[in-house]
Amino acid sequence: MQIADFQTLMDDLYGEADRERGMPSTVAWLCEEVGELAQAVRKGTVEQQLHELGDVLAWLSSLANQLGLSLEDAAQRYVTDPP
Asked: What was the pLDDT predicted at 52?
């Protein structure tokens, strides 16, 4: 699946609820998921790590959608001008 397709899917599935929840709550959920990913990396199985990676990607997509930004555009700088 392409990043833009995933971002669209997340908007189709959860966009309305995410917008109602708002960006501050979305950022909080994203941070929580990053913490769960860190725990899975340290102590989890491959399946748990994959699950948490998906959750982080979903919440990141939600935030990007609420900001009106494209994750593909964000990733493009690593192609054109890597840090």
From this structure: 98
